[in-house]
Amino acid sequence: MILLANSEAWPGFVETVDRLNAGEHGLGAMVAGISKVEHEVSVRSVGLGGWPNMLGEMEFDAGVMDGTTRDVGSVGALRDILPAAALAQAVMQRLPHVMLTGDGARRFAQEIGFPLENTLFDDSKRVWWARLEKELTPEQLAAFPYIPLAPLSRTITDPERVRDTTVFLCRDGSTGIHAATSTSGWAWKYPGRLGDSPIPGAGFYADSRYGAAACTHTGEMTMRCGTARTVVLAMRLGHSLGDAVKLAVDELSELSTGFLGGVVIHAIDAQENHKVVSFRCGEGIEYWLWQTGMPGPERRLAETL
Ligand code: ASP
């Protein structure tokens, strides 16, 4: 067995390891771990600790994929409901659809018993409003939110606000390879913006025969390249894990227009090798790894490409 997750995963990583060791299906084990991450307010990019959109509303994106059946469930721009990855799993299990967004996702959550929650943490609200006070004129502030929001799009590059996602990939005791993601997306994003985390093929993909991949950081790039699917398809076509990730990085580096930034690719193969590569995100990107035989999870440094 192998479990790979990014640095934000710490509140739920051991929970997932324990469940994998107990023989649980890998997807359920990862969703249980991610639920813990989503409720940990000190993780400032996922769930309750994440950042709101420009209107000060928390909007969550999450996705899950069962690599044995290639079933997928995802939710996007989900308000007032957590855990989002668990809801994505319920979409997969209970509906003939793959993805629900916005009001529909919230309605479905309530129908199946998820309570409405206040998901805007006080500190996030304070920082959001302070940022608006810095960006807007007194006239704009007085008229807010009835002002055009598009000119505020530059706020998504707020250097003081990290943006990230929690991504989990595993190969479980039944040789199933699965993927799960959850995020509040980019701080101060335009309302309704979906990142790559709920988009199968972009932010996550899994196929038990070959491997799985999941991405963090600039979803606006991985959605254009289908990055997670590229990695898994390249392995299907015979590339090694390392070559598959390199191919996906080459595709990202070919982009020259639109919003460009960094991407971190996390990937595993069916032989339980793993690779975590930081593309234009600099050094110091960390991730969590556990494999059968390890006494406990290890925190490691990603390669830079
Ligand atoms: N990839 C996520 C998104 O684009 C955010 C992140 O992981 O930093 O929403």
UniProtKB/TrEMBL annotation:
The active site is at 165 (nucleophile). Pfam families: Asparaginase_2 (PF01112). It comes from the Bacteria. InterPro entries: Ntn_hydrolases_N, Peptidase_T2. GO terms for molecular function: hydrolase activity, acting on carbon-nitrogen (but not peptide) bonds, in linear amides. GO terms for cellular component: cytoplasm. The record marks 164-165 as: Cleavage. Substrate binds at residues 193-196, 216-219. This is L-asparaginase. It comes from Neomesorhizobium albiziae.
